[in-house]
What we know:
The chain is an all-alpha fold.
Amino acid sequence: MESFxxxxxxxxxxxxxxVFILTVVRAVFVTLVALTGIVGNIINxxxxxxxxxxxxxxxxxxxxxALSIAxxxxxxxxxxxxxxxxxxxxxxRAGNIYCDITGFLxxxxxxxxxxxxxxxxxxxxxxxxxxxxxxxxxxxxxxxVAVVTAAFYILTFLSFFVGxxxxxxxxxxxxxxxxxxxxxxxxxxxxxxxxxxxxxxxxLVAVLLLAIYARIFQIALRHSKKxxxxxxxxxxxxxTNATQGHDAVDGQDHGIAIVxxxxxxxxxxxxxxxxxxxxxxxxRAKRDYDGIQRNIRSLRIPLVIxxxxxxxxxxxxxxxxxxxxxxxxxxxxxxxxxxxxxxxxCSINMFVYAFGRSEFRKAFRKIFCRTSVK
Length: 374
């Protein structure tokens, strides 16, 4: 009996040690992600406005800076996770004002980021589909208005859906799986607010982004087919012209050959004129296509940012909705893994800019390095 009690006590101690070690590892990891996000987004806020407008449009810089501010807020809120190891009893009390404020900001920041990502892609879409009028349609002032409107839109709807939640549910509470204060999206009584919030902030954005990229792909494909057809037509005219010029004097005597040569020369001139017009159209279409290709290449950064955001946040929104609709429960580890995926999103954009834009690297070196940049 004494041996059994001793082994049980030893097992209990081992379990506590394992839980403690896991908790420390989680806290260290979240702290690193948060600090990376804070430092990275501060760098973005400093560097992006100093990138030349010729390399990154003024309107684009406004939206990207706003995205960095939203990600900075999200990263700062992550620090509440490690701190909650010492304050979770205080945070878990109902009606804690600090928990309510940080929980709302933790939810608001990524939702606002989603709206800014939509604006970034909309900016690229207009540049590709309206290249001649882009500078007139998209200006810095309009970008500022769009950013403020998007932020107000998210703030209004999120506040509304949180406000209409069932009174039996604390709309913002401490979530043990995340070690953070969050809006109670997983509560069954919160289902209507959960669906409404995610529809407005994530799912609708995802649908609109898919529509934008489908349209861009359609435009690129249509231009490619048009240019291919025109180039083939020009090649056929050139071959016809060469064949007729070669056959003009075959089997003819000298007098007839002169007359025939005159007529064929006239035909050749007409064919050459037609071919020149075709080639001019091909050159113009090729220039337009090259411009569209350059704009599509400029989509790489927004596409990476968008893909990272959707991969990071869609699984979490699905889990929240499923838990709220069915009452299903997930282990703290499962919640934490999805939380890490979503939380990491606020810290990756600096690396995307650094590896994807040479202009960003030049501006960074010019600001933070003493060596001159040629």
